[in-house]
Design goal:
globular, binds adenosine-5-diphosphoribose, alpha/beta, 6 strands, 6-stranded mixed β-sheet
Protein backbone atom coordinates (compact mmCIF):
# COMPACT_ATOMS: atom_id res chain seq x y z
CA UNK A 1 0.00 0.00 0.00
CA UNK A 2 1.46 3.35 -1.02
CA UNK A 3 2.00 6.28 1.32
CA UNK A 4 -0.33 9.08 0.19
CA UNK A 5 0.49 12.78 0.27
CA UNK A 6 -2.49 15.12 0.44
CA UNK A 7 -2.50 18.90 0.72
CA UNK A 8 -5.54 19.35 2.95
CA UNK A 9 -6.95 20.59 6.23
CA UNK A 10 -6.47 17.45 8.36
CA UNK A 11 -9.65 18.21 10.34
CA UNK A 12 -11.69 17.42 7.23
CA UNK A 13 -10.22 14.00 6.44
CA UNK A 14 -12.58 11.05 6.75
CA UNK A 15 -10.12 8.50 8.15
CA UNK A 16 -10.13 6.29 11.25
CA UNK A 17 -7.61 8.54 13.00
CA UNK A 18 -5.93 11.89 12.53
CA UNK A 19 -2.76 12.67 14.47
CA UNK A 20 -2.51 15.92 16.40
CA UNK A 21 0.81 17.77 16.82
CA UNK A 22 0.10 18.69 20.43
CA UNK A 23 2.14 20.02 23.34
CA UNK A 24 2.90 18.22 26.58
CA UNK A 25 -0.09 19.75 28.38
CA UNK A 26 -2.55 18.31 25.80
CA UNK A 27 -4.71 21.36 26.56
CA UNK A 28 -4.74 22.75 23.03
CA UNK A 29 -2.76 25.48 21.32
CA UNK A 30 -2.34 27.04 17.92
CA UNK A 31 -1.47 25.49 14.55
CA UNK A 32 -2.94 22.10 13.77
CA UNK A 33 -3.65 21.56 17.50
CA UNK A 34 -5.91 24.60 17.53
CA UNK A 35 -7.62 23.59 14.30
CA UNK A 36 -8.34 20.07 15.59
CA UNK A 37 -9.78 21.33 18.88
CA UNK A 38 -11.97 23.90 17.08
CA UNK A 39 -13.33 21.27 14.68
CA UNK A 40 -13.76 18.50 17.27
CA UNK A 41 -15.55 20.74 19.74
CA UNK A 42 -15.19 21.24 23.50
CA UNK A 43 -15.60 17.55 24.33
CA UNK A 44 -12.07 17.02 22.96
CA UNK A 45 -10.53 19.32 25.56
CA UNK A 46 -12.60 17.63 28.27
CA UNK A 47 -11.31 14.23 27.14
CA UNK A 48 -7.72 15.56 27.04
CA UNK A 49 -7.94 17.03 30.53
CA UNK A 50 -8.16 13.58 32.11
CA UNK A 51 -5.17 12.24 30.15
CA UNK A 52 -2.70 14.04 32.43
CA UNK A 53 -0.52 15.40 29.62
CA UNK A 54 1.85 13.62 27.24
CA UNK A 55 5.66 13.32 27.16
CA UNK A 56 7.55 14.40 24.05
CA UNK A 57 7.67 11.46 21.64
CA UNK A 58 4.75 9.71 23.34
CA UNK A 59 1.14 9.44 22.09
CA UNK A 60 -2.33 9.29 23.64
CA UNK A 61 -5.74 8.68 22.05
CA UNK A 62 -9.21 10.26 22.33
CA UNK A 63 -12.43 10.01 20.31
CA UNK A 64 -12.77 12.47 17.44
CA UNK A 65 -16.16 13.85 18.60
CA UNK A 66 -17.39 16.32 15.92
CA UNK A 67 -14.53 15.45 13.52
CA UNK A 68 -15.14 13.12 10.56
CA UNK A 69 -12.24 11.04 11.97
CA UNK A 70 -13.29 8.53 14.63
CA UNK A 71 -10.14 9.02 16.71
CA UNK A 72 -7.52 11.66 17.44
CA UNK A 73 -4.05 10.43 18.35
CA UNK A 74 -2.29 13.23 20.23
CA UNK A 75 1.47 13.16 20.00
CA UNK A 76 4.11 15.68 21.04
CA UNK A 77 7.00 16.34 18.71
CA UNK A 78 10.30 17.84 19.89
CA UNK A 79 11.05 21.55 19.82
CA UNK A 80 14.07 22.07 17.52
CA UNK A 81 17.20 23.10 19.49
CA UNK A 82 19.73 22.67 16.72
CA UNK A 83 19.75 18.87 16.74
CA UNK A 84 21.70 18.55 19.98
CA UNK A 85 18.89 17.20 22.15
CA UNK A 86 17.92 13.93 20.41
CA UNK A 87 15.31 15.80 18.34
CA UNK A 88 15.50 13.33 15.41
CA UNK A 89 14.94 10.31 17.70
CA UNK A 90 12.11 12.06 19.55
CA UNK A 91 10.38 12.98 16.30
CA UNK A 92 10.70 9.39 15.07
CA UNK A 93 9.28 8.20 18.41
CA UNK A 94 6.26 10.49 17.97
CA UNK A 95 5.41 8.82 14.65
CA UNK A 96 6.29 5.32 15.87
CA UNK A 97 4.26 5.57 19.10
CA UNK A 98 1.31 7.04 17.16
CA UNK A 99 1.39 4.04 14.81
CA UNK A 100 1.68 1.60 17.74
CA UNK A 101 -1.32 3.19 19.46
CA UNK A 102 -3.28 3.06 16.20
CA UNK A 103 -2.53 -0.68 15.86
CA UNK A 104 -3.68 -1.44 19.40
CA UNK A 105 -6.95 0.36 18.66
CA UNK A 106 -7.65 -1.46 15.40
CA UNK A 107 -7.18 1.71 13.33
CA UNK A 108 -6.67 1.02 9.60
CA UNK A 109 -6.48 4.50 8.05
CA UNK A 110 -4.43 7.32 9.56
CA UNK A 111 -3.36 10.84 8.60
CA UNK A 112 -0.37 12.75 10.01
CA UNK A 113 0.40 16.46 9.89
CA UNK A 114 4.05 17.56 9.48
CA UNK A 115 4.78 17.21 13.18
CA UNK A 116 7.20 19.73 14.79
CA UNK A 117 7.78 21.71 11.57
CA UNK A 118 5.63 24.71 12.52
CA UNK A 119 5.87 26.39 15.91
CA UNK A 120 8.52 23.84 16.96
CA UNK A 121 10.76 24.85 14.02
CA UNK A 122 12.10 21.39 13.13
CA UNK A 123 13.78 21.62 9.68
CA UNK A 124 11.20 20.47 7.13
CA UNK A 125 13.36 18.20 4.95
CA UNK A 126 14.85 16.24 7.85
CA UNK A 127 11.41 16.00 9.47
CA UNK A 128 9.86 14.70 6.24
CA UNK A 129 12.63 12.05 5.90
CA UNK A 130 11.92 10.89 9.47
CA UNK A 131 8.16 10.81 8.83
CA UNK A 132 8.54 8.78 5.63
CA UNK A 133 10.96 6.35 7.29
CA UNK A 134 8.39 5.66 10.02
CA UNK A 135 5.52 5.40 7.51
CA UNK A 136 7.45 2.87 5.44
CA UNK A 137 7.86 0.63 8.49
CA UNK A 138 4.09 0.44 8.94
CA UNK A 139 3.00 0.41 5.28
CA UNK A 140 1.78 -3.18 5.30
CA UNK A 141 -0.20 -2.78 8.54
CA UNK A 142 -2.61 -0.04 7.42
CA UNK A 143 -5.01 0.34 4.51
CA UNK A 144 -4.21 4.08 4.20
CA UNK A 145 -1.31 6.15 5.53
CA UNK A 146 -1.64 9.82 4.63
CA UNK A 147 0.97 12.51 4.99
CA UNK A 148 -1.37 15.52 5.26
CA UNK A 149 0.56 18.63 4.23
CA UNK A 150 -0.81 22.14 4.57
CA UNK A 151 1.10 24.08 1.93
CA UNK A 152 2.62 23.68 -1.52
CA UNK A 153 6.21 23.67 -0.23
CA UNK A 154 5.59 20.61 1.93
CA UNK A 155 3.60 18.93 -0.86
CA UNK A 156 6.53 19.27 -3.26
CA UNK A 157 8.99 18.13 -0.57
CA UNK A 158 7.07 14.92 0.27
CA UNK A 159 6.46 14.13 -3.40
CA UNK A 160 10.17 14.54 -4.14
CA UNK A 161 11.27 12.36 -1.21
CA UNK A 162 8.72 9.65 -1.99
CA UNK A 163 9.76 9.62 -5.65
CA UNK A 164 13.36 8.95 -4.53
CA UNK A 165 12.39 5.78 -2.59
N1 LIG B 1 -4.24 20.65 8.73
C1 LIG B 1 -3.05 20.07 8.43
N2 LIG B 1 -1.86 20.60 8.78
C2 LIG B 1 -1.90 21.78 9.45
C3 LIG B 1 -3.10 22.44 9.80
C4 LIG B 1 -4.30 21.82 9.40
N3 LIG B 1 -5.51 22.36 9.69
N4 LIG B 1 -2.78 23.59 10.47
C5 LIG B 1 -1.43 23.64 10.52
N5 LIG B 1 -0.90 22.57 9.91
C6 LIG B 1 0.52 22.22 9.72
C7 LIG B 1 1.53 23.33 9.75
O1 LIG B 1 1.55 24.02 8.50
C8 LIG B 1 2.80 22.53 10.00
O2 LIG B 1 3.27 22.02 8.76
O3 LIG B 1 0.90 21.39 10.80
C9 LIG B 1 2.32 21.35 10.86
C10 LIG B 1 2.75 21.40 12.32
O4 LIG B 1 2.79 22.76 12.74
P1 LIG B 1 2.24 23.18 14.20
O5 LIG B 1 0.78 23.02 14.22
O6 LIG B 1 2.82 24.52 14.51
O7 LIG B 1 2.83 22.06 15.18
P2 LIG B 1 4.29 21.90 15.81
O8 LIG B 1 5.35 22.56 14.99
O9 LIG B 1 4.41 20.44 16.12
O10 LIG B 1 4.20 22.73 17.16
C11 LIG B 1 3.36 22.22 18.18
O11 LIG B 1 2.21 24.30 18.38
O12 LIG B 1 -0.02 24.57 18.11
C12 LIG B 1 0.95 24.41 19.05
O13 LIG B 1 -0.15 23.30 20.87
C13 LIG B 1 0.80 23.14 19.82
O14 LIG B 1 2.47 23.76 21.39
C14 LIG B 1 2.20 22.92 20.29
C15 LIG B 1 3.03 23.37 19.10
Amino acid sequence: MAIEVLQADITRLDVDAIVNAANTSLLGGGGVDGAIHRAAGPQLLAACRVLNGCETGEAKITPGFNLPARWVIHTVGPVWHGGVRQEAQLLFNAYDNSFQLALTNGIKSIAFPCISTGVYRFPKTEAARIAIKAMQQYQDKFSRIIACVFNGEDLALYQKLLAEL
